Amino acid sequence: MANRFADWSRSLVSRSPRSVAGQVFVLQVALVVLLVAGGVLALVLQSDRDTFAEAKRRSVAVAQTFAHSPGVVAALESPDPSKILQPLTEAARKAAGVDFIVVLDTKGIRYTHPRPELIGKQFVGTIGPSLAGKVYTESVNGPLGREVQSTVPIDNADGKVVGLVSAGLRVKHVASQVTRQLPIILGAGAGALVVATAGTALVGRRLRRQTHSLAPDEMTRMYDHHDTVLHSVREGVLIVGSDGRLVLANDEARRLLELPPDVEGQLVSELSSLDPETAALLVSGREVTDEVHFAGDRLLAVNQRHTDSGGGPMGTVVTLRDSTELRAVTGRAEIARERLKLLYDAGLAIGTTLDVLRTADELAQVAVPRFADFVTVDLADAVLHGQEPAPTATDMRRTAVYGIRDDHPLYEAGRLIDFLPSTPQARGYGSGHAELVAELSTATGWHAQDPERTKNIIDYGIHTLIAAPIKARGVVLGMANFWRSQEHGPFDEEDLSLAEELVARAAVSIDNARRYTREHALAVTLQRSLLPRALPEQSALDVGFRYLPAQSGVSGDWFDVIPLSGSRVALTVGDVVGHGLHAAATMGRLRTAVHNFSSLDLPPDELLSHVDDLVGRIDQDESDTESATGIVGATCLYAIYDPVTRRCVVARAGHLAPALILPDGTVTFLDLPTGPPLGLGGLPFQTAELDLPEGAQLVLYTDGLIEDRRRDLDVGMELLRQALSGHPDRSPEESCQAVLDELLPERPKDDVALLIARTRGLPRDRIADWDVPLDPAAVAGMRDEVARKLDEWGLSEVAFSVELVLSELVTNAIRYGSEPIHVRLIHDRTLIVEVADGSNTSPHLRYAATMDEGGRGLFLVSQVAERWGTRYTPQGKVIWAEQALPEVSEESGPAAAPMAEEAPDRDGAEGAQRGGV
């Protein structure tokens, strides 16, 4: 116990304050606490012992008193002792203030109990000593809980034990006595503790004032530190009293201020070695932080604080720090920090786009005014077109000019410059290293470039130049010129390295923009070559169109207008999903395929079936290569308009339905059968036939016009409807522009193809048709009818060649075809002769030998007509030929003259013999 107390005391002392007063106070308090705690514990134990002794005394007295009461022995000898004794014990228990009085026989069977249900049951406790005539006290767990009980024998007149009496109290009643005494005990202990602690605190406070709360070792160290401050630290320390006298000055303060040895005690204002401003500060008493003052040739950072803030004497303490060298180092660090910040900002600001001009502007803007007053950027003219630069500094285009003022005499942007070899730009361009011209007024080589302008530049105040080559991947692309005027000092060698690093960051971005310009130009050139450059001449439709590439460049949208036989015109639009050269090349293949298949005069559904098969074969062929880039997501819409019948036949392969603008200005979207996209195969395409009034407009478009991430497809179609509605007199060109202005931003994210065609009808007086019987003799009459119609149209000049073509075609139809045979003459941009019959047999051109009797009919037709061909209809076929009108076929007369000798006679007999296929 003593050892534990000693350990505890040492621990308490070790954790106490280091001052002497603090240690004494803690020890005294600990001692008082221990004494008070011991006294309280002793009182508690004494009270507990006395309480249990009192309980024993009371239980013995009650038991003995009841055992010797008159009538108890007689009651025990009666037939029913419990009936007599139970009321007596309860009355005695209540009168004596005990918890129970129990009478029992010599075998321990209860006659009485506070709880009647326990009468007749075995007594809980020890009865042996009492049967021997002794009084026995014990603590047991009885029926009423933890009990303190005393058992006394009951003797008869002969001194024989005839029964026992047990009286007692429950333990909790005994403990309650202790509990009632405990507050008094603790209160007395707390009071003693408070009085003792207060006395200790008074003693400790007096001791703390006398020792300044310092421990002995700290007091020793305090004097050691005092000597160190005075003689060793490299910072001056002054203490100035409230009366303006110098109380203390350490060695460093004496050195910095050049104070005499006996300075302490003198008035600061009388020290001649102090600068007046410094002396005024020391006696002013105001607080300052790092205020700069001069002391001779030194630059001092002064800090001053009051000494009475912690209860000390009035006065100020001053610290002095020599910052002469530090200020120079700080200035250089600040310059380095600003340069790093400039390079960091340049990395963020330069190269935000893949545009050469924009990147050059960003380089110029980021350097003004932080590094230079003016910046000009000259790039090789070939770089602006995405090409490789020249090896010399000729054909340099000024692409960026930026400065603090706009009235400078430097070359303007856009000027083409040839730098002379003596100029710093030419030298830097050739060597690949930056050139520094510290003084422009004395640089003769620079003056030779443009003497008059260089004089104006110098007179303007520009005095120094750095010409840094814009070099990327070993190739110099141009020069960046940094100019300074009176706003800055001249450039130095450190500025030269900064300019090189700044330009190097921009050079990669400019080169990337150059490469992108080249690739983009190639892709756009490819795409433009694959799209129609001009619309063909035709009379069926008035057509307007627009094509807008996406932001990302070329892609796969396309359109076409294809003249067909019989004055008909095919309209088609298509879309290949994706962007880039592959999409553009795929678009070209599809457009070429549609153009070629249209020359066969196929219906729209058959043409799309052929294109679908072609796409499937292309995908199959490309799937066998290492870089499989099949055609995925290609769509197409194909429509044929006939101005003679004003009928339009349309089929689509996964494409959006076209819009129809009626002559009254209302707009509807055509309900067309939906076919699968190209390349899927397996499903047929279906056509829809529409009768269009003259002046109606068909609007064909790709999904880029109406689809957008910010809106649904239905919203886009409704916007298109609104843009087209209510303007029936607007031309297709005007409608195209109005739609783009309404639906699209400046640079669409997806490419857009838009085609608007207004229908025209061929006048009935420009069409003539006849039914021809299946009789060779009808050929002559047909020639006469055609000749009269040509005279009526004023086309007699071409009557001979038309009659020749008509004879051959009608003779072929009669000889090799079947009924019904029909002849139609169309007067359009050309004169079109059509002979239809009910046979599907296709004629073909042959070259007959010298001795052959036939086989020359179609050869004559091909020589006389500008074009000829065959198209199939559900009822058979149509053989057609086109003949140029007189005003556009002045040179065709001589070419047709030799055929006159072989022209058939009017009865058509020779024609019937030569017209075999």
TrEMBL record:
UniProt protein name: SpoIIE family protein phosphatase
Pfam family, one: SpoIIE
UniProt feature, compositional bias: Low complexity: 891-901
Primary subcellular site in the record, as a coarse category: membrane
Superkingdom assignment: Bacteria
Transmembrane segments: 20-45, 182-203
Location of the GAF domain: 378-520
Record keyword Zinc present: no
Keywords, ordered alphabetically: ATP-binding, Cell membrane, Hydrolase, Kinase, Membrane, Nucleotide-binding, Phosphoprotein, Transferase, Transmembrane, Transmembrane helix, Two-component regulatory system
Every PPM-type phosphatase domain range: 541-759
Membrane topology: Multi-pass membrane protein
